[in-house]
Amino acid sequence: MRKIEFPDRADWQGLVKRPTQNYEDLEAGIAQTFRLVQEQGDGALLELTQKYDGVKLTSLFTTQEEIAAAETELSAELKEAILQAYSNIQLFHAQQAEQPKQLETMPGVMCWRKSVPIDRVGLYIPGGTAPLFSTLLMLGVPAKLAGCPEVILCTPPAKDGSIHPAIRYTASLLGIDKIVKVGGAQAIAAMAFGTESIPAVNKIFGPGNQYVTVAKQMLSKTGVAIDLPAGPSEVLVIADDSANPAFVAADLLSQAEHGADSQVVVLTTSAEMLSRVEQELQTQLDNLPRKEFAAKALDNSLGILLGSVDEMLRFSNLYAPEHLILSIRNFEQVLDDITNAGSVFLGNYSPESAGDYASGTNHTLPTNGYARAYSGVSLDSFVKKITFQHITPVGLQNIGKTIEVMAAAEGLEAHKNAVSIRLKEVQNV
Ligand SMILES: NC(=O)c1ccc[n+]([C@@H]2O[C@H](COP(=O)([O-])OP(=O)(O)OC[C@H]3O[C@@H](n4cnc5c(N)ncnc54)[C@H](O)[C@@H]3O)[C@@H](O)[C@H]2O)c1
Ligand SMILES: N[C@H](CO)Cc1c[nH]c[nH+]1
Ligand SMILES: [Zn+2]
């Protein structure tokens, strides 16, 4: 972890830049993957899966029997944990449903808005280095709550061509009966353009590594929507001297272990806290099975000493972290000062892992500073909001003049006429 003491404000902009590869560096390779999938369909998926995942598949799909078998392959303890998480995520997302209300903006002018599920959605579940079945809960629960009629699920296969039983179990829980064994940019291409056996979807959801994230971003001109750029995981911890250095280190490592391209940051006003966090990182790192990933991520990470809580919050807002942890006294007093963050964890007993798995909030969140403008996945991500209006003849008499005047001022006579022609008829009745 790079240690920086009281950096000059002029240097902050450089410090908030993530260590990930540039979009431009990855674009050409991904464009080539897109071309292959568009030209050769399923054949390209099999070829690219062999190349990037080291598996020669005979079929791109799990069978219904494989999905059903997961029930017997998981321990009772894990199934219970998945069900508990499912229930909390369901509760949190169900209360996001918008209650439609009709508004009469002027007498006789009625406007309302209705949520309509997106027809066909594609879910990407990361699986390159860890089978993130928790992500399937985070995407599948709101997709089902929203009522999306068709859900396609892609995830990379393990080296033996199988899909982890917890992903199969969670799919079955959600009523998803088919899993496509494909990952990376090729999975995004398959869901965006369609192949002989995979239908093209309207919107693609899900986090992933840099290849997955850039592939999603490259779809902007295709007419296929994406949820958000949710790339390599990150966390920023703001710690004063009331924080517990062991807890802070554990939270930093929890995101560092996702992958070498993750970044974790600790901001503190206490030099002693920074040294103790560094010591804890070393001790805890040694015991982690994924210590190689975590150690590489720590090489790209930052420990920064700043002058005050206010300064730490300013830095954090500029950084716009995916996850923000406030391990400070009186955190309640600064909540309104947080302007850019994906998800916020308050106090010493709210580990970020709670949001990753089970508290109820969604863990598919904007990374790489995109929290400046994007929100994480929610129920809204799976619906379109269609507005309706009904204007009565009296309503048109009330609002007509306003429309005519505005249309004339824009020089759009046909717009004005669409009102005038009706007003004449109404006045003649
Ligand atoms: N922001 C979020 O909300 C969020 C949530 C969960 C996970 N994540 C992130 O998701 C990522 C998961 O990454 P992962 O790699 O384990 O799984 P992944 O499923 O995202 O990616 C694996 C795929 O990457 C492709 N790939 C690997 N190396 C490649 C190369 N050199 N060239 C082209 N393609 C290549 C392969 O096709 C492979 O199937 C992590 O970075 C994690 O931090 C983010
Ligand atoms: N921390 C990840 C989001 O950045 C989500 C996750 C899934 N499993 C564990 N963690
Ligand atoms: Zn995580």
Automatic annotation (TrEMBL):
UniProtKB keywords: Amino-acid biosynthesis, Histidine biosynthesis, Metal-binding, NAD, Oxidoreductase, Zinc
Cofactor: binding details: Binds 1 zinc ion per subunit.
Cofactor(s) needed for function: Zn(2+)
One annotated Gene Ontology cellular component of this protein: cytosol
Catalytic activity of the protein: L-histidinol + 2 NAD(+) + H2O = L-histidine + 2 NADH + 3 H(+)
UniProt GO BP: L-histidine biosynthetic process
CDD domains: Histidinol_dh
MF annotations from Gene Ontology: histidinol dehydrogenase activity; NAD binding; zinc ion binding
InterPro entries: Ald_DH/histidinol_DH, Histidinol_DH_CS, Histidinol_DH_monofunct, Hstdl_DH
Ligand binding (Zn(2+)): Q255, H258, D356, H415
Binding site for NAD(+): Y124, Q186, N209
Coiled-coil intervals, chain numbering: none
HAMAP family: HisD
Protein family membership: Belongs to the histidinol dehydrogenase family.
The name this protein goes by in its record: Histidinol dehydrogenase
Organism this protein belongs to: Pontibacter virosus
Gene name of the encoded protein: hisD
